[in-house]
Amino acid sequence: MYAPGDVRVVDRPDPRITKPTDAVIRLSATCVCGSDLWPYRGAEPINGPSPMGHEYAGIVEEVGAEVTTVKPGQFVVGSFFASDNTCAICRAGYQSSCVHREGVGGEGAQAQRLRVPLADGTLVATPQVPDADLIPSFLAASDVLGTGWFAAVAAQVRPGKTVAVVGDGAVGLLGVLAARELGAERIIAMSRHGDRQKLALEYGATDLVAERGADGVARIKDLTGGLGAHSVIEAVGTQESMMQAIRATRPGGHVGYVGVAHDVQLPGDELFFSHVHLHGGPAPVRRFLPDLMDRIWHRRIDPGKVFDLELPLERAADGYRAMDTREAIKVLLRP
Amino acid sequence: MYAPGDVRVVDRPDPRITKPTDAVIRLSATCVCGSDLWPYRGAEPINGPSPMGHEYAGIVEEVGAEVTTVKPGQFVVGSFFASDNTCAICRAGYQSSCVHREGVGGEGAQAQRLRVPLADGTLVATPQVPDADLIPSFLAASDVLGTGWFAAVAAQVRPGKTVAVVGDGAVGLLGVLAARELGAERIIAMSRHGDRQKLALEYGATDLVAERGADGVARIKDLTGGLGAHSVIEAVGTQESMMQAIRATRPGGHVGYVGVAHDVQLPGDELFFSHVHLHGGPAPVRRFLPDLMDRIWHRRIDPGKVFDLELPLERAADGYRAMDTREAIKVLLRP
Questions:
Q1: How close A223 comes to chain B (CA, Å)?
Q2: DSSP output for B39-77
Q3: Does the distance separating the beta carbons of A252 and B89 come in below 8 Å?
Q4: Boundaries of each Alcohol dehydrogenase-like N-terminal domain copy (chains A, B) (predicted)?
Q5: What digits encode the pLDDT tens for the residues B274-326?
Q6: Which of these, A60, A150, B201, B316, is most buried using a 10 Å CB contact count?
Q7: pLDDT tens column, B142-173
Q8: Domains and CATH numbers, chain A
């Protein structure tokens, strides 16, 4: 990305092993993230041309001398933050705050090849190279599925609970899927777009609410005996969406927020009297990868459906455009 | 309280049963709360002369026709919010957000007698009238002990964890006691006042940190291998104390905040990347009362030590002054 709205596909040197804990993978697929739209829309600064992309799945080509858990030829998925998976923070399940974490986005996963640091702690391999039709689902596990899943876990989704989901992008939709898998009794998807409503219903939504803001909150209250939802997933990251999530949650309920916060200020007094639990942040996808990849491998879940447009990597700019204009929910790029 | 700094003891009509669910109690003791200092210091508006006080323990004098669980002659403790203890929110343990909640502070517990609404759902009786020396501890259960306890529970204090406590008022000190009772391995009290440090150590603090703000956070990191505490109790309610609590918590850790928020705005991006769990609000003291009263009855805990000044109710103004100037941690008033 050269500037807001200006995405170009250019030749760059192939990534190489630079540390003995690195791996280099050949991407089977990559994609454009909702968070990539923040700089694309000028809502986040870009300092000169920046490699983009942080979602990846592919075949290991080479590993450093110290890598022991993955080997060339294996199909692997990793998260946007590389982690050692051994420090106290990782062991507590917060690999995206690993004391040795490194972003993989710096080198850009919207590419043919990617160097992944801390390969042993970051990458998870499938039993065998998967069938081609499963690739989109495994790619989804790299971020949007893991993020929606974390949001549902952070929102303490459990059997019998009513869950509301704020945001109908890929993460929100996969939050619906996660809520269903975690046993939610009722799942209210807040969406005003027909194609996304349809997918939300496929993924397990039991109710749709098209209203937003105060009206949206009032509808959630109507649907929950005036109390609010037990669990609310926030998957947008704006002031409005955060307040909508907090206000739609009953006292003692849980908000799981994973939309990357932009210009959000939470009023302490309202939060205090809301009595909600608040938890979120950059999803520790690595915590969930073995379980999620197992569910995909056995075709129990189909998160790849969020990719409703597939383009060759060369057409990345068209992919950004389609997501920016909401023509596509999420764009898969084939290197 | 007639105005900031202006507290007077005046004659008012005795409270009476106004609803069949009410009880009237004769107070054995009442007290001044840290939160009473907000209006006293002009940091919260007062609309004309206002009855003050919301902490109470005493003997039931009269009950309404529908009250079944307490009866005249019993010694009872209740919380600052009356609750039905039967609605979905109460059953989830959030009695201070009960759908029928009523503040008892409106009539003022700094008095000889108090009408308590929803007596069945609010009051808890002791097996017999307790010995006089236990009265201060039972009075503490009405708010500051229950609030410190809730903060520790909200901060997920568990055996083996390191807990930091921001705030050395009565609530913070009883947060230390709660952390010890809940099995914390290490309890770091942040305090710069000798008398409070001493009580913190008696209540189970293993470390004292006198620094505040960024320096205080740095000390907590030093004491925890650079990671931060697992659990942090926030018992002040200012912007500085909230940020200190959030920054002193390790990723994946828990902040339990019970200081009544005043002019607090939490920056969404910092909260997002902090990876902390945030929970708090007005403590649902009623959830904990049976357990806490049992511990006091059997003399396993001595929360009444936070009262380091006792005055007759007539001298309430002196009590406010002593707390405002920090001459006293907490002032007990004898009606």
A1: 15
A2: HHTTSS---SS------EEEEEEEE-TT--S--TT-EEE
A3: yes
A4: 20-118
A5: 999 999 999 999 999 999 999 999 999 999 999 999 999 999 999 999 999 99
A6: A150
A7: 999 999 999 999 999 999 999 999 999 999 99
A8: 23-143+284-334 (3.90.180.10), 148-280 (3.40.50.720)
